[in-house]
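Board work, copied verbatim: Fpg/Nei family DNA glycosylase
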Amino acid sequence: MPELPEVEALGAFLRERAVGHVVVATHVAQIGALKTYAPPLEDAVGRAVVGVARYGKWLALGLGPRGELDARPEGAQLYLVFHLSKAGWLRWREDMPPSASPKGRPMGRSAGPVALRVWLDDGGFDLTEAGTRKRLAVHLVADPAEVPLVASLGFDPIRAAADGELTDLLGAALRTRNQQVKGALRDQHLVAGIGNAYSDEILHAARMSPFALTRSFTDDDVARLADAVTSVLAAGLAQASGRPAAELKDAKRRGMAVHGRTGQACPVCGDVVREVSFADSSLQYCATCQTGGTPLADRRMSRLLK
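↓ predict structure ↓
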């Protein structure tokens, strides 16, 4: 799943290529991907892209008034807001097929079938989603806050770090209820933009068990976790910055220390990276770095390590 660093890079990519260009056609190939019906998607046609904003793992393309090419971002009248979910991606196309051609054909196994296609006056893009579980979501709204999952997002860790508020906001979020820290970092209502991969990386950098209970955290624990959030996300942003959309997935994988590296050596201590599997996901960790050398039981109902 693309997380905050990759979504931020996709936003920058779209800013460079799409802003100032007019939407000339749209097509929804997976009808379930479009979550709104009023205004209709056709209302996006004839409007220039005037800005791109990120909200956690969501992107919003601001669309100006029809017929105006120089509208400022704050003058957007509509927003095309989308979330790529677990298996979605954005594929930019310099050579878009004619808008009258078949629109929903698969674009290659790696990209997955097209969910939404947007033609611009110069190029365009597909939102694709692989797999059988379709969760990619697209909304056309007058304000991104009209999307309930955007309106309910927690604080943005990158912006909070830049403002010097990350430690305080993170501490308040962790103490809202007693839960495993891995789940708290992934809870978009608490912290916006961190998913399965970067939460593994953050907890490894902080030398914390993914099953540690948040209410047990001291002020020093919170500060250590905040430092890890800052450093890991900053490294992810640096790794993704300036890369075309097609290269972001591989760049993310290369930057991981433990996530997706089960059975390999921990780059810090040399111990083997271990995994805990759940019904539809897994986490990776280093026992030496994070759990005092004790492996976690590989089942959901294992006794939690504090």
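The first strand starts at residue 23 and ends at 28.
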